[in-house]
Amino acid sequence: MTPEKNDEKTNPATAAASVPKRKIGGLGRGLNALIEGSYEKKGDRPNDRLVSHPVNSVGFISVEHIEANPYQPRTHFDQQALQELADSIKIQGIIQPVTLRQLGTNSYQLISGERRLQASKLAGLETIPAYIRKADDQQMLEMALIENIQRENLNAIEIALSYQRLLSECNLRQEELGDRVGKNRSTVTNYLRLLKLPPDVQIGLRDAEISMGHARALISIEDPKTQVELFRKIVAEELSVRRVEELVRAGFGRPTAPASNGSSASAAPAQPVVPLAELRRTERHLTDRFGSRVQVRPGPKGSGEIKIAFDSVEDMQRILHILHPS
């Protein structure tokens, strides 16, 4: 053995320099940097050849081989939010893999992750990381519904409908349902009761015209017509939940018993109630008159207020000139 070779073998600096440096992937590549190490060469990547993945494994799956979830409880996705997610995926990659079940070789069906799949297509990805698991049709539905319920931006009606589907289509009892979604039985019951409200009220709750608290107060009223009437009053007057609860306790919409002869003389005269349709006509007329949004809000005992919106000091002066031309 020559001295040169011996020095190279024993010199740490020389030995370290002879070892090829390993390229470390950046965090911005998302799961790609973690999963791609399982492929030895480019020809083994799933976008280069068709592969089959075992159950309970994570791998890259071609988006062309993924079918939509037929049990997806949510059919509407905000397009702006979807585009924002796609823009994030272009930079950061997929942070959390979608979940699939395998139907056959190179054939998969989505269990959860519809938004991630759609956004990945918008971002132009050919493959996405996916967790493969075994599931039958009922498990597919149950997992899709439970994932849907756990979303933060779900409205109360969407949650209630998902609860109802879990009960009816997955044959769960309310106690079992509460355990699956991490809620107690009373919470589940309160959501399910929302589905007994008239359609107009459910739409108002879905569109955030009223809150869950308003809706729970309306449930206490038995007559659907009265529920709708109070719902419209809530929207028109922007009533608080506490005020609605007071109206319900006071018997809103219930016919008043006729006063006896002895007390009729001292009874206060009934205050006229302005119909909601007339209030809306008045608002439209004043809005056209002033060229600005006008709100007419009735109050107790015949009182009320009229609000005229303006955008600037000049706009306010224009409105004042209409009120006082001189």
Main sheet overview:
5 strands, mixed
Structural class: alpha/beta
Beta content comes to 5-15%
Mean pLDDT: 75
Broad CATH class of the domain at 27-135: Alpha Beta
Outline the low-pLDDT stretches: 1-51, 262-270
**The CATH topology of the domain at 27-135 is what?**
Conserved hypothetical protein from pyrococcus furiosus pfu- 392566-001, ParB domain
The SSE string, one letter per element, is: HHHEEHEEHEHHHHHHHHHHEEH
Number of helices: 16
In helices, the fraction of residues equals 40-55%
How many β-strands, per DSSP? 7
Give the neighbour order of strands across the main sheet: 1-5-3-4-2
Radius of gyration: 32 Å
* Distance between the ends: 113 Å
Going by CATH, the architecture of the domain at 27-135 would be Alpha-Beta Complex
Sum up the overall morphology in one term.
flat
GO cellular component, one term: chromosome
Organism: Hymenobacter montanus
Protein name: ParB/RepB/Spo0J family partition protein
Biased composition (Basic and acidic residues): 1-10
